[in-house]
Amino acid sequence: MPLSQQRSPKWLNVALLILGFASGQGAMFIAQSWLLLKGRIDLVGMAGSHLSFAILALFLIDSGSITLLASHTREVARRGLSYHALWPSFWATCAFRLMLSLLLVGAILLAATTLGMMSPFTSSFALTAIPALLIWPLNPAGILDGVERSGVGGLTGAAMYIAAAVALPATTRMPEGDAGLLLGAAFSLGTLVAVGMQFVMLQAVIGTVVPARPSRQGLREAFVGGTLMLVNTLPGQLFFRFQIATAGALLGPAGLGTIVYTKQITNACTQTISFARRAEYIHLLERLSRPSANFLRVTVEAGKSGVVMSFAGMFAVMGFGSTVLLGLLPMDTAIGSAMLIFAPLIFVNTAYLSLIQGYIAIGNHGRVVVATQVVLWGSAAGTLLLAPSLGLAGFAIAEIGLQAVGALLLITIAPSPARLEERRTKIRARELSGC
């Protein structure tokens, strides 16, 4: 069947993405809140930071291929081709991701066996989380996004969070090494379930997955595209881990637990909003490909629902923080203060990432690189400058301020309709010449 016939309502994709994220992050929120009520803020910080770095490893392995495969799938559909045309690119992408995975696994094993500074929790978690790194390269989420089944990816992605959340309460009664083993194994099991469910849905939507030998050209395209996507999107991922490491060093276990818990809540809001952007991406590509399309107008219109959701999320987090400060919940008041301080980040981050997605949609990665580098290095410098004296407020001021600067920079350098049309003409010319 031609891929052009594979459609799914946008609202259904958004609903499934939100349901999946709410299930996964909701389970983690409940488990971590239970630990806080038990006075185990140290375990919240330790487990949360390790899971965060495990997710970063999957992000590195994916190297933006979900977006790239989605774009390729829509191009195959636009040409009216059968789904069989997808498999060479898919398996080339899998091969590239597997190479990245093996490099990471080698680095983890080397560190676990040679660095005596690793805690028992860290070394145990790393070893049992390795299977997740070997399973994730095979995920077909990009194809599902391309046939407008992005909701399935979000729904299945909840499995790794739910598995970790179920295991987390049990770690309070275990030695540190055993706790790390259990949490890492749960994460790997959840990843296996997620990828397995994606293949089941892929089979139902477009039929049997067909093995195909990756070509050198396919591997080269996966490498080039993946590298460009990582340059654009990795800084934000690295910055959160930088915050975790800095908070642990400057603020101690309690401060680390506070920032991990608070950022998980704000990240949950921004991630939920990103699902609307993810479902809108294919339509954004189509609208920006029209003659005389106004880049800023189209991008802003596509992000309207996200802005509304960001305001709702910001005020909800402020309300939760106020509840903690008023003593209506038996949590440390520092957590309530942190929620109030970080809440505006939800709106600023939504505006910034909406603009980023617009630039990615037109293939203008260069300008995104400029903005992301300004935001990354400016936020890191601001954090190191402000956090020692202002504590958690320094973290928030640096991050919110520099993301606002990044958004203004992207607006300032936005291409005009004429420039955008000229860029599309050049791309079409390269495609026709086979370059």
Describe this structure in words.
The protein has 435 residues and is mostly helical. The protein folds into two domains: 1-214, no CATH class; 215-435, no CATH class. It is 82% helix and 0% strand. It is built from 16 helices and no strands. The protein has helices at 10-37, 41-62, 65-78, 87-114, 120-135, 141-146, 150-167, 176-206, 216-288, 295-302, 304-325, 333-342, 345-361, 365-390, 392-412, 417-433. Helix 7 runs antiparallel to helix 8 (176-206), helix 9 (216-288) crosses helix 10 and helix 11 (304-325) packs antiparallel against helix 12. The model has no long low-confidence stretch (mean pLDDT 82).
Tell me briefly what this model is.
By secondary structure, this protein is an all-alpha fold. The protein has 16 helices and no strands. The chain is globular and about 60 Å long.
What characteristics describe this protein?
435 residues; mainly alpha; 2 domains; 0% strand; globular
The global form is globular
Number of separate helices: 16
Mean pLDDT: 82
Intertermini distance: 29 Å
The main β sheet shows up as: none
Report the β-strand fraction as a percent range.
Answer: under 5%
- Please, how many domains? 2
- Spans of at least 5 consecutive residues whose pLDDT stays below 50 are none
Derived from helix and strand composition plus strand pairing, the structural class reads: mainly alpha
Task: Name the helicity range.
Answer: over 70%
Please provide the ordered H/E string of secondary-structure elements: HHHHHHHHHHHHHHHH
Radius of gyration: 22 Å
Total beta strand runs? 0
